[in-house]
Design goal:
Jelly Rolls, 4-stranded antiparallel sheet, 7-stranded antiparallel sheet, 35% strand, globular, 218 residues, single chain, alpha+beta
Length: 218
């Protein structure tokens, strides 16, 4: 396993958010990564999530599943997703993952990119239930895919690289507030990729108690 800055390929031009991203290449050995991908492909309840874009509901260009602890509801692009129970293989992986990231996770979004036509547009994982500076751990299984990141304030400031089978990408600090990421389409790619992004969903705040009416003083 090799660990380093996400942008170590170009150390002469560090980006402002380079310190917020760590790339663990080959974090999960190939044999274990393949076994996990096979189990998830066969046993997860995959579906096409409906999301709201430009004022209308559309099908996401990928298969997905939201999974985690009870109550870890997630609101994304106008829709609310309730978690499926942990898959046993993912639950077994959690202690090692949390130790590597120095963070706890109570949920994971699984995205299944069936070929190069499936993709993810520019976005940030900055929903309120994730908190102001969330730790997001992204585990890649299957075909290598291009992964892009750019600053919100300057879209010309960006980097791209390929995340491979078993790679773990950790995003933290101000990354979600100041940057966006995307997984673009790749023409001619016929192989599949499964991506798991682990998060900690903060519980919804309890509603404020209703004031008790008091009789007027006479």
């Amino acid at each position: 396993m090799v660990q380093g800055s996400l942008f170590e390929a170009d150390p002469a031009k560090p980006l402002p958010f380079a310190d917020w991203v760590v790339w663990h290449r080959g974090w999960l050995p190939a044999s274990k990564a393949s076994a996990l991908a096979d189990a998830l492909r066969a046993e997860v309840l995959w579906s096409v999530h409906r999301i709201r874009m430009f004022g209308r509901w559309v099908d996401s260009p990928r298969l997905s599943c939201w999974m985690g602890e009870p109550g870890a509801s997630y609101r994304y692009s106008g829709a609310v997703f309730e978690p499926e129970p942990w898959h046993p293989a993912i639950e077994a992986l959690l202690p090692r993952l949390e130790a590597a990231c120095g963070a706890r996770f109570n949920s994971v979004l699984l995205n299944r990119y069936r070929d190069g036509r499936d993709a993810m547009g520019w976005h940030s994982d900055d929903e309120p239930e994730l908190g102001p500076a969330p730790v997001i751990a992204s585990l890649s299984l299957g075909a290598p895919r291009r992964f892009l990141m750019r600053l919100k304030a300057d879209h010309a400031t960006r980097r791209e690289w390929r995340l491979g089978h078993g790679d773990l990408l950790l995003m933290r600090g101000e990354c979600q507030r100041l940057a966006q990421h995307a997984l673009p389409r790749m023409a001619g790619l016929g192989e599949e990729r499964i991506n798991l992004t682990f998060r900690w969903i903060r519980p919804a705040p309890s509603p404020a108690p209703r004031p008790v009416a008091r009789p007027p003083v006479r």
